[in-house]
Amino acid sequence: MSVRFVMIGGFLGAGKTTTVSRLARHYQAQGKRVGIVTNDQAHDLVDTNSLRSQGLTVEEVPGACFCCRFDDLVGRVGSLEAGARPDVILAEPVGSCTDLVATVIQPLKDLYAGRFEVAPYAVLFKPTHGLRILRNQTAGGFSPKAAYIFKKQLEEADAIVINRIDELDPPQIEELSRLVGEQFPGTPVLRASAASGAGFDALTELLDQTGGFGRKILDIDYDTYAEGEAELGWLNATARITSAAPFDLDALLTAILTDLAQSCRTLDGEVAHLKLIGMDDASAFAVGNLVSSDTAPQLSLPSGLKPREADLIVNARVATAPAALEAEVKRVVAAQAAKVGARAEFRTSQSLRPGRPVPTHRYAEAKK
Ligand SMILES: Nc1nc2c(ncn2[C@@H]2O[C@H](COP(=O)(O)OP(=O)(O)O)[C@@H](O)[C@H]2O)c(=O)[nH]1
Ligand SMILES: [Mg+2]
Predict the structure, then answer these.
(1) Ion ligand 2 residues within 5 Å by Cβ
(2) Mutate to test the pocket of ligand 1, among 17, 18, 49, 253 (most ligand atoms within 8 A of CB)
(3) What ranges do the domains of the chain cover?
(4) ∠ Cα 212 216 217 (to 5°)
(5) With 60 as the cut, is the pLDDT of residue 140 above it?
(6) Closest alpha carbon to 119 in 1, 38, 27, 6
(7) Ligand 2 mean position, distance from CA 92 (Å)
(8) Partners of 60 in the beta sheet?
(9) Residue nearest to ligand 1 atom 14, measured at CA
(10) Architecture in CATH of 233-352
(11) CA of 109 to the centre of ligand 1 (A)
(12) Given a cut of 80, is residue 345 above it in pLDDT?
């Protein structure tokens, strides 16, 4: 029997990992075995760690996007099949990546027809940046080229899911639904909250459908796409935090995010997504997120931990120079650790601008 392949798209910080986690629990409750594949431009993924810490089976494709590492994606899926024997694979692509129908979905459907049954492609809409981008407000937080990627992601979707409705009031939801409906006519629009689970019955119903999905091949300019992606500074780093006395891990994560948000404002670098995971030596953990420059940091998973030692992973995607981002992250982590009487020692650090996407396969027309 073929494995159901469900990919959930959307911009950085839209709620993909939260959605994947909720969907995994939904399929498990139906008695299905679930495997997850995460993806990032660099190594040391917060997403992989936070999903694994929830007891989920996760493989990752680090170092480039699914489209450029298509064979790795198939290889990681193969590892899941060999181990957990999943009925459903949930895949989360890089949030700055688009053209996934032509480069991932169509090749999977065409080259692995007997092996995978590909679900409709749902793309999450991120209200914070999305509203400004769809209103064509130049500020939008991002440059027009980054906004181009944001819109292309929605254009290839079989369904657009307006996420985070728990944070919106009814007139805002109406305005967003109207803007999305006008700019992406013919695409079903769902409203959901990955945090509360609202709207997930409709989402899972949609994802269970079979038929002519994953066929919207984009008309896309790869120069604009590459330039838009390269405007983002990317940093993945790990640090060991040690202290003579117990410290409050949740408070430390929140302080780091708050301080970093201020740094990014000073650098005039819009935050696409800053995420932190702090883990004690027993693998209990806390997760913190910041998804735009004008919203508050969120402790998405408080731990209540007071360790003396912890591992910290920082994944930052900010529209600024990677070297400046790396310097700020190191400064802020050290300064905030010092405030709670701890020392931060960085173990790994990778900062970069995503390179030009060069897909392994690209289908100019939908075959399947
Ligand atoms: N309030 C609220 N927060 C959400 C929702 N979905 C995701 N988040 C939060 O937004 C942040 C980014 O979510 P994440 O799933 O990591 O986004 P990703 O970058 O698309 O994978 C985290 O702090 C999540 O807890 C939602 O529906 N409502
Ligand atoms: Mg994610």
Answers:
(1) 16-17, 47
(2) 18
(3) 3-228, 233-352
(4) 130
(5) no
(6) 6
(7) 7
(8) 38
(9) 15
(10) 2-Layer Sandwich (3.30)
(11) 29
(12) yes
- Place domain 3-228 in its CATH homologous superfamily: P-loop containing nucleotide triphosphate hydrolases (3.40.50.300)
In sequence order, which residues have a C-beta less than 8 Å from that of residue 170 and are 6 or more positions away?
none
Backbone angles phi, psi at 66, to 5 degrees: -50, -40
pLDDT tens readout for residues 196-225: 999 999 999 999 999 999 999 999 999 999
CA-proximal residue: ligand 1, atom 26 (nearest)? 164
Q: For the residues 9-27, what does the mean pLDDT come to?
A: 98
Q: What is the pLDDT of residue 142?
A: 87
Which tens digit of pLDDT belongs to each residue from 141-168?
A: 788 999 999 999 999 999 999 999 999 9
Q: Tens digits of per-residue pLDDT, 300-344?
A: 999 999 999 999 999 999 999 999 999 999 999 999 999 999 999
Residue nearest to atom 6 of ligand 1 (CA): 15
Cα 245 to middle of ligand 1, angstroms: 32
Q: Phi, psi at residue 279, to the nearest 5°?
A: -130, 135
Q: According to the model, what pLDDT value does residue 27 have?
A: 98
Q: How confident is the model at residue 136 (pLDDT cuts 50, 70, 90)?
A: confident
HSE-up of residue 119 (Cα within 13 Å, Cβ side): 23
Q: Most distant CA pair in the chain: distance in Å? A: 62
Q: Residues lining ligand 1, judged by CB closer than 6 Å?
A: 10, 12-18, 95, 163-164, 166-167, 193-195, 273, 289, 291, 298, 300
- Asked if domains 3-228 and 233-352 share a fold, the reply is no
